[in-house]
Amino acid sequence: MKICIAGANGAFGTKHLDAIDAIDEADVVSVVDVEPDRLAALANTCGIEHWTTELEESLARPEIDAVILATPTQMRAEQAIKCLQAGKHVLVEIPMADTLADAERLIQAQQKSGLVAMAGHVRRFNPSHQWIHNRIQAGELTLQHLDVQTFFFRRSNLNALGKPRSWTDHLLWHHACHTVDLFQYQTGAPAADIHALQGPPHPELDIAMDMNISLKSPIGALCSLTLSFNNDGPLGTFFRYICDNGTFVASYDDLEDGNGETIDLTDVADSLNGVELEDREFFAAIREGREPNSSVNQCLPAMVTLDRLERCLNDAVE
């Protein structure tokens, strides 16, 4: 399977390059990004035959089967639609769009094309969260409260690699999107009740630097999400699952019980790398002609909830 990665020099573009290197059934044959010198060096280092600063150039190459979009958030929905219209399957990094309307347009394009379109909700694939999900599905655990902290120190416009961004990150439509989808995935239903508060906007970035979100499932499970770009300390997202039969703390691909004892995840999946597992699901869905876990259609409820939260925040400001 021949793959193009757009946004290849970014933090997640690099993660996908590394993940695909471990997957025999797929090869990256084209990379796209905006800085030609860095991109040419990347292509040369990785032995990738084609690079370009224009996505359309890659889409015109008949040998390319699928595209992974790790481009700026504001561009993804339109780019994903172009991929589908060009006859390419597409995996679009989270969030698939930064408005509900654009997410719905993307889903309409997928339905018209009949191709695989998947959103990069990697939390569904991290072995830590898979371990919890499998036990919830088996009736061994009932989630009572998911307490999540998403902490970064981002008072200037830098990405996860510490390099300047050409776009502005967002606590709600990017970072909260991970947890909103995960909570609804683990509880099996969209949130019934929502509440949100945000701090004052950054004077230059014009985004809220701190945010609190509360969700309640139809059967009463709670989610408490705290987000900050002001945290000067350990960075990342930390998930505490408080269940009827144990407490568990997940950090990306790792899992401990409530007392800090490591839980063995080696039997959960074929890899301990969530991004690799996400990519494997994308390629398997293409090969088998089926809808993938984390399809854009399955992830639409998260976008609906984010839209509700945004309206809640806007109403509070007004």
What keywords describe this structure?
alpha/beta, 7-stranded mixed beta sheet, 6-stranded parallel beta sheet, 36% helix, 23% strand, globular
Helices, strands, pairings?
Elements: E1 2-6, H1 11-21, E2 27-32, H2 36-46, E3 50-52, H3 55-59, E4 66-69, H4 73-85, E5 89-93, H5 100-113, E6 117-120, H6 127-137, E7 143-151, H7 171-187, E8 193-198, E9 210-216, E10 222-228, E11 236-243, E12 246-251, E13 254-257, H8 274-288, H9 300-317
Parallel strand pairs: 1-2, 1-4, 2-3, 4-5, 5-6, 7-10
Antiparallel strand pairs: 7-11, 8-9, 9-10, 11-12, 12-13
Helix pairs in contact: 1-8, 4-5, 5-9, 6-7, 7-9
Short description:
This protein is an alpha/beta fold and 318 residues long. Helix content is 36%, strand content 23%.
Summed up, the helix count is 9
Ends apart, CA distance between termini: 50 Å
Number of DSSP strands?
13
Poorly predicted runs are none
Helical content band:
25-40%
Q: How much beta, percentage-wise? A: 15-25%
**Main sheet summary:** 7 strands, mixed
Helix-strand category: alpha/beta
Strand order in the largest sheet: 8-9-10-7-11-12-13
The Rg value, from CA coordinates, equals: 19 Å
- What is the overall shape? globular
Can you tell me about this structure?
This protein starts with a strand and ends with a helix. α5 links the parallel β5 and β6. The model has no long low-confidence stretch (mean pLDDT 93). It is an alpha/beta fold and 318 residues long. The strands form two sheets. It has a seven-stranded mixed β-sheet with strand order 8-9-10-7-11-12-13, covered by helices on one side. A six-stranded parallel β-sheet has the order 3-2-1-4-5-6, sandwiched between helices. α5 packs antiparallel against α9.
